[in-house]
Description:
- The structure is a homodimer.
- Chain A has 5 helices and 3 strands; from the N terminus they run H-H-E-H-H-E-E-H.
- Chain A is of the alpha+beta class.
- A 3-stranded antiparallel beta sheet of chain A has the order 1-3-2.
- In chain A, helix 3 packs across helix 4.
Amino acid sequence: MVQSQVLDRTFSALSDPTRRDILGILERGPASISDLAEPIGISLPGVLKHVRILEEANLVTTSKEGRTRECRLAPGDMDEVTDWIEHYRRLWERRLDRLEAYVERQQRKGDGR
Amino acid sequence: MVQSQVLDRTFSALSDPTRRDILGILERGPASISDLAEPIGISLPGVLKHVRILEEANLVTTSKEGRTRECRLAPGDMDEVTDWIEHYRRLWERRLDRLEAYVERQQRKGDGR
């Protein structure tokens, strides 16, 4: 899968508060769809829909355990996402450094008057 | 704005490849809506729609310059987003460390047989 589609799926999966809540619950350990439905307060099909989206983004894996579906946290494609975010952050830090240097130069000019 | 809404808006804004392309073009410097429309190959209203979403996520600022609208890159709420991503990454690194330690223990047991 090309990097752009990885970013589409991951950012899109993470853009929903219910899906981030599901990840938060799974941090504590594996859970079934009904284990997730209770604290989140939505229907089983609703939870399943969100879990599917998280599964497509490789943020969750599921497996059938008897009659229940066990959900587990997965690492996702965090390297790609972190690279993208870090690139953006560094860009801003460089800009802020340049702005700071500019402000200092202007201040020194002011002091020299 | 609560952190959850910040994450909703930022992840949602970043989930579209056209919007990430717009940010990529603005890295090189400010651009008008038509400067953006040409390389991206979509209509002016289409670009404007994407720019509005980026603006709501504080990833772009715009200002009227005569008859054109100048777009500039903005830092967004990258601290919140980076914190969230970093939390998830660290969680995985800890899990991988534990897994590695477990595998090493099992290997040592195997060697000792």
